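Encode chain A's predicted structure.
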Amino acid sequence: MKLILLTIGLLAVAVIGITIKIWAKKDGKFAGTCASQSPFLNPEGENCGFCGKTPEEMKNCEDQSHS
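Encoded structure for chain A:
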């Protein structure tokens, strides 16, 4: 029973944290959500599977099409 309550409590803290982050961000949008921006997720430098942009095109990304 203690484990279930602890799990629910930790999940509640995580959800509250994400909610606060969304609330604090302008327009509730996360910055840099395109995977092609991350060298850890895209070591080969492939284009974004969602919008088709290259990592070089995403460096100064002002386009909010991913949101």
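The chain has two helices and no strands.
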